[in-house]
């Protein structure tokens, strides 16, 4: 394969900018969407509608960014399909004795399909007779070949060590899975159609964010001199905060740590000072008011607040030192929008600090050893 940066200074920036197109590929260019039925079809899973009745639990196994995609998958699948989801760090699973039963569907999520710990965990599950499907990017990879069924996420080759478009495609496919299973359970036709329409609108909304990249470059200038940054969010925004903090630390080497905003009072609030800024992911919906009160708590202690939001609100805008507003969407889709400014924030901070952006020190694209 011929890899080029196509005029971009780094693969990371190129891959962030490919996301409108790559998420569309995750939807099979529309072919995985069933607009009339308000549903989705992932034929590679080799699951019949009747099989969905037998699935009592979904257990996602992954590492790194794929693990955080899994955490979002948990939120979205539990919400739309009403099936309990567990997400496991594959490295933690290996030495353990995983519980495997016939009613659980195991889902391995991996960009490379070669991550040593994910493979080892899946081997152990299969050894015990567990049913495993894969959400993999690399065609023909070890995990793609091992699993009983699977879906390629079609992100295309990802060169930057820090994963961006693969993450978005993993989350997109997990949304499709939630929709497909959910529609055979309790999602109505009209809600299903709404979600399909939202998915179709997604590439254009991501493009809208990318077109405003200069705003994030300015925000990065204000973040780059800190030693440490907190990332905070509630509900679906908590896994977004985890992935956003990972992007920041990987490429900028600034210590970035994510917490659920609700746990602020249980420790991290002690860190807040002029020297410790916070990035809040604050979207409209159930958690909005509680998140705003967390922002007030941080402000009251002299902490600078950067906000990624998806609605206009003068109260929030007045509280925030800096705010970036992404297009509004259904809550299930919102992580695919709120993560994009966070990726760019990581990129521009690393750029300002002169880091080795595509090849961060000490890291590898694929961790094939224990
Ligand atoms: C490494 C990479 C990450 C990736 C993780 C899992 O840590 O640097 O970007 O998320 O491995 O890789 P996988 O290929 O299994 O998704």
Question: Topology, pairings included?
Answer:
Blueprint: H1 11-17, H2 19-26, E1 33-34, E2 39-40, H3 49-54, E3 57-62, H4 64-81, E4 85-89, H5 90-94, E5 104-110, H6 116-127, E6 131-136, H7 142-146, E7 149-152, H8 165-183, H9 189-210, H10 213-223, E8 228-233, H11 237-252, E9 255-260, E10 278-282, H12 288-300, E11 305-309, H13 314-319, E12 322-325, H14 335-352
The structure holds 6-O-phosphono-alpha-D-glucopyranose (G6P).
Residues 63-66, 110-112, 115, 118, 161, 163, 363, 365-367 line the site of 6-O-phosphono-alpha-D-glucopyranose (G6P).
Count, helices: 14
Task: State the helical fraction.
Answer: 40-55%
Give the radius of gyration: 20 Å
Beta fraction of the residues?
A: 15-25%
Q: What class, by secondary structure content?
A: alpha/beta
CA-to-CA gap between the ends? 28 Å
Q: Total strand count, please?
A: 12
User: What is the arithmetic mean of pLDDT?
Assistant: 96
Major β-sheet strand ordering? 4-3-5-6-7
Rough outline: globular
Uncertain ranges: none
Instruction: Please trace the helix and strand order, writing H or E for each element.
Output: HHEEHEHEHEHEHEHHHEHEEHEHEH
Sketch the major β-sheet: 5 strands, parallel
Catalytic activity: D-fructose 6-phosphate + L-glutamine = D-glucosamine 6-phosphate + L-glutamate
Enzyme class: transferase
Domain SIS: 48-188, 219-360
Protein name: Glutamine--fructose-6-phosphate aminotransferase [isomerizing]
């Amino acid at each position: 394969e011929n890899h080029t940066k196509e005029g971009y200074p780094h693969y990371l920036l190129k891959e962030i900018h490919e996301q409108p197109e790559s998420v569309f590929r995750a939807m099979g260019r529309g072919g995985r969407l069933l607009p009339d039925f308000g549903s989705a079809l992932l034929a590679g899973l080799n699951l019949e509608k009747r099989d969905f009745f037998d699935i009592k639990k979904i257990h996602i196994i992954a590492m790194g960014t794929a693990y955080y995609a899994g955490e979002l998958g948990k939120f979205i699948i539990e919400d739309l399909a009403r099936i309990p989801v567990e997400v496991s760090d594959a490295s933690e699973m290996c030495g353990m004795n995983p519980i495997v039963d016939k009613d659980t569907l195991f889902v391995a999520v991996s960009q490379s399909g070669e991550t040593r710990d994910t493979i080892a965990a899946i081997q152990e599950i299969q050894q015990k007779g567990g049913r495993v499907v894969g959400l993999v990017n690399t065609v023909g990879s070890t995990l793609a070949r091992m699993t009983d069924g699977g879906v390629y996420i079609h992100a295309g080759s990802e060169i930057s060590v820090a994963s961006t478009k693969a993450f978005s495609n993993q989350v997109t496919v997990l949304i499709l899975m939630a929709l497909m299973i959910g529609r055979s359970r309790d999602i109505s036709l009209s809600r299903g159609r709404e979600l399909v329409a939202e998915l179709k609108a997604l590439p254009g909304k991501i493009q809208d964010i990318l077109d405003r990249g200069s705003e994030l470059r300015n925000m990065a200038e204000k973040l780059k001199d800190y030693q440490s940054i907190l990332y905070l969010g509630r509900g679906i925004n908590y896994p977004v905060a985890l992935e956003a903090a990972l992007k920041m630390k990987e490429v900028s080497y600034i210590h970035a740590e994510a917490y659920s905003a609700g746990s602020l009072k249980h420790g991290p609030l002690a860190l807040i000072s002029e020297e410790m800024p916070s990035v809040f992911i604050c979207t409209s919906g159930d958690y909005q008011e509680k998140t705003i009160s967390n922002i007030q708590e941080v402000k009251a202690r002299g902490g600078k607040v950067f906000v990624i939001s998806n609605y206009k609100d003068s109260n929030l805008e007045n509280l925030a030192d800096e705010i970036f507003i992404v297009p509004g969407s259904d809550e299930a889709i919102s992580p695919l929008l709120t993560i994009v400014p966070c990726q760019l924030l990581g990129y521009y901070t690393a750029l300002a600090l002169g880091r080795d952006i595509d090849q961060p020190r000490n890291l590898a694209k694929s961790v094939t050893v224990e």
